[in-house]
Structure formats: C-alpha cells, structure tokens
Amino acid sequence: MTAAAAVEPTELEELMKAQAEAAHEREVGDATRPTAEDLAASPTRIDVEGLDLFYGDHHALKDVNIKIRDKQITSFIGPSGCGKSTLLRCFNRMNDGIKDCRIEGKIALDGQDICRLRQRVGMVFQRPNPFPMSIYDNVAYGPRGMGVRDRVVLDELVEDSLRRAALWDEAKDKLKESGLGLSGGQQQRLCIARALAVQPDILLMDEPTSALDPVSTLVVEQLACELKETCTLVVVTHNMQQAVRVSDMTAFFLLGELVEFGPTEQVFSMPKDKRTEDYISGRFG
Asked: With 70 as the cut, is the pLDDT of residue 121 above it?
C-alpha cells in the first residue's frame, strides 16, 4: 500500500491544501526572511560554553559551544546517538538525575546559571504524554504546581494555552474529559499547551512530530512557527525537510561534536564542513 493510499481521502485533501498554503506563505515570506546578519543580531537566550558531558566513561558531548538566540527556531540535526537530544536535555537539567552523568562547562539563560531557571524552560517529548486526567487539569497542572489557585486565573491560562496550541476550538466543549481520549495529534498539542501554561521563555521539542501523521505534523510545524513570536524554540529532528521548513538556525552534531552551526539556508545549501554535506545529502546517517 502506498503512503497516499494509507491516508483517508479527506485527510489527504486537507494535507495537500495545507501544504500548498504553507508553501505559498514561505514564498511570500522569502522577501522578508531574516538575513544571516539579522539572525546574528538577535539577543542570546541560551549561551553554552565549553560543555562536556560524560555517562560514566562515555564522552557524550565534546566541548560544545553554541548560542541560542531570541525568538528563533533552532534545529538540532544528526544521526542517532550524536548528542543532539543529550544537549537538549541539558537545557532543562533532565540529565541531572542520570546515574554517573557528569557535566562540565557552562550553560546560561539570559546570563544566569540555568540551574536556577528551570521553570522558564518548557519541554515537549517525542511521543504525546498527556497525564491521565482531564484536558483542563492537564493544562492547569503546571500553574497549580507553581502556586496558582485562583479559578479565574486558571481558566484564563487554560484557554490562552489551548488557543496558542491551536486546540481550543476542538477541546473547549470537552475540557472535563480525559486527555487520553484525544487523537495522537491532539494529544501532542495538549502537551504543547501544558508546556505553554507555565509561560516559558524557552520551549524545547524533542522530535515532536515523529509519532504523528502527516496532517498533524504540518499543524505542529505551523504552530511552532507561530510560537516563535513569543518564545525561543529548540527542536531536535531527524527530518531534515522539517528543519528546512521551520528553523532559522540549524546545528549539525556528529559523535558528540557540534560540527556546524549557522543559518538554516546556508547549512543546507552551502555547508562549510564536508561531514555536514555528506549527512544532508544522505551519504550516511
């Protein structure tokens, strides 16, 4: 069975229409696309200097230096095991609880040690992981954990977060129903809403569309492009076409090293390192 045959006709039509609209928007946006100079001029949000990470004797990240800039989408690409998800998890300290993990170097958010600022960083994982509770309680979970008890404030946060995650219209009449009853794409957008509810400055996304169908993937990609108006996004992806579609900056990792980092258009059209060229052309990975 072909991939097209596996998609219901109505879904395929919806996908084709959405892809055509997105392609048109990209063409229109090319004239105003930020230049390399514009991208480099944006303020630095996350500053990584001389980062080394070890799992016991395994040297997983090797002297990584990278600046993640404000209101941009930065994609991390590279083959499995290259260190891209490991670095992403460093940004919200998820590696801290791993036995025998040792981190050397510096990670700063707005010039301050990221160890003190974890609540300013949201995370969306590879597979949708809604909590076994209502849609409303999923989104309100974070704010409640931060001490928000006023029902009016919670109602506003839930609605705003679901709207920003492009899920409000589909969920507003079933907020008391379990989040587990949503489709896979809706569950992932619920997880995005849950992350947005704590109003993070940084949103980390670890292969957020790898478990989704093409229609849901496109919705999440369009959502990411809208979210960068208000926060900074870092996305790990194996899908290089996705990196081209959504990201402003791209970092290529290999065997724990940051091989190349620059504007996405430059990395994919004129890579400076032969290893980057070999990877994006499919010679390995």
From this structure: yes
